[in-house]
Please model this.
Amino acid sequence: MEETETVEQAPDVDGPFLLAFEDAFNVPNRGVAVTGTIERGTVTPGSEIDIVGLGETRTVTCVEIRQRNQVLEQAQAGAAVALLLTGVTVDQLTRGQVLARPGSIKAHTRFEADVELLATEAGGPKEPVTGGSWPRFHIRTAEFGGSVELPSGADALKPGDTARVTVTLESAVALEDGTQFWLRRAGRTVGVGTVVGIVE
Model:
């Protein structure tokens, strides 16, 4: 039997800057440092950056980029970095927000998505999932609660099923067509999904 070659997708360095931060901490007398891996695009010191999701969008300035204690002149998609920001405090940052090029992405609560529940033997749910018993949505670096409208005529999805559903999240999250997410229950992944259309 021939082995299939896995092709890794190259980082999107040309798209608008996007980073889902993982941690944030004060740097006395300098600002707030946030850490994470750049999802796409490029950032340079002096860049204005939007903080999007879980509240009002605010614009801050990146004044320094570090990687393994080295100061960088720029950083691109795929790089794990620490960005020093001014114009924000630690208590205004929440895991689940993203840093992005101003105006390039917005926060939404309602969207259409293609979802797939894993088969039970692959770790999926043991019983059908109804609209009212939906797992949590793991989007980038955080989990969010939400409700689901199933396709017309369906009252549940069985393990292994795929469907296009409408999701309403409890919080506004930075989303766009193509955003991937995981369905999680009791700390384990039971399904996967992709945003295919923003509703509001």
